[in-house]
Design a protein that fits this description.
Layout: E1 2-7, E2 17-23, E3 30-31, E4 36-42, E5 45-50, E6 55-60, E7 67-69, E8 73-79, H1 139-148, H2 166-174, H3 201-216, E9 219-227, H4 229-241, H5 251-263, E10 271-274, E11 279-282, E12 288-290, E13 292-294, E14 297-299, E15 302-303, H6 311-326, E16 340-342, E17 363-367, E18 371-377, E19 380-394, H7 400-415
Parallel strand pairs: 12-16, 16-17
Antiparallel strand pairs: 1-8, 2-4, 2-7, 3-6, 4-5, 6-8, 9-19, 10-11, 12-15, 13-14, 17-19, 18-19
Helix pairs in contact: 5-6, 5-7
Length: 425
Amino acid sequence: MGRYVFKLPDVGEGTAEAEIVVWHVAVGEQVEEDQPLVDVLTDKATVEMTAPVSGRVVSVHGEPGEMAAVGSPLAVIEIAGAGDSASEPAAKPKTEPAPTIVSTRKAPEPLPEPPRIEAPAPAPANLARTPGEKPLAPPAVRRRAQELGVRLQFIPGTGPGGRITNEDLDRYLAAGGGPRPDAPGTALQPREGVEEVKVIGLRRRIAEKMQESKRRIPHFAYVEELDVTELEDLRVHLNAAKREDQPRLTVLPFVIRALVQVLARYPQINARFDDEAGVVHRHQAVHVGIATQTANGLVVPVLRHAEARDLWDCAAEIGRLAAAARGGHAGADELRGSTITVTSLGPLGGIATTPVINHPEVAIIGPNKIVERPVVRQGQIVVRRMMNLSSSFDHRVVDGYDAADFIQKVKALLEHPALLFMDTQ
């Protein structure tokens, strides 16, 4: 028998280390070739490592949350054949147990058992109380039960006529009875205890990314109110008339189409800032990061070349990317390279948000929840569908005036959606 040492391979992109996310095997377990062995995380992409050989797992190296360097051992597998590592020396034979010494000394006589004291039998209880029947008890007993948060209807009464006595109450408490959480007059009880949750995996990467973004980027926020009544009418109409092979349209494809048209006039916003080199990279292509909530945290897959997609193509790609992200199947190339990010909480969008910029980008846009409310139009109070558009910008690259003017132009397109399909540049 030999041993095969499985080492963390180079996963590309110049990665020097990866974080262990979860082990799929345990020491002593038999594994087959290509069976999932361990998941590692690098640059927001979870990579599944499979067993290169069949055999028995002898040892694993690293706990979930620990970092492993490229080339370091991850697992040792015992295999048939020579393997690539010398086997450990055989275990030493066990030594003979020492002889048992038998004493000839007479054991002392056992002490007599103390007489058993039988607990008094509980007093006969009045169990004939029907549901909804008011229990009988003196005022003092009622007051005491109320202070204790105990419902008398759960206590059998042994007094005259089935009345509940203080002894009945004591017996009920001694037997494990106590205040019910929903009992009237129940005193609020303080809770103790602290749960420790280790921040590892994708959650740790998100925390590091957000911390880095807030530390390095001087954010400023801008929120504008939009009347999306006409946009919603158009969206509902297009969904009703769509073909079966076309995806359902949400607000996001319309927002992205508006961004594509306006970004052509504001290249400093469709950009990435290398603040260490002091260089702003302005991009012609619009690669939109779609902030997506998953079971493991926030992931930002990238909708590439949004400028070359129509509404339907955009909606289909958003759906595909979201499904891949939530299923943990998004590749590393699908999670990097965005030039501007759109984040939306959908129905939970709230009134306004202050989104954190996806470093090293310089802007992030966040549509909020659409609500119907009364507004004044041409001197009349009418009900319209309103939505706030929240945004954050890197003040080192984007001036406040340019940011406000940019959002105003996006607003104009979304409030008059016919313009989204016209060449207005």
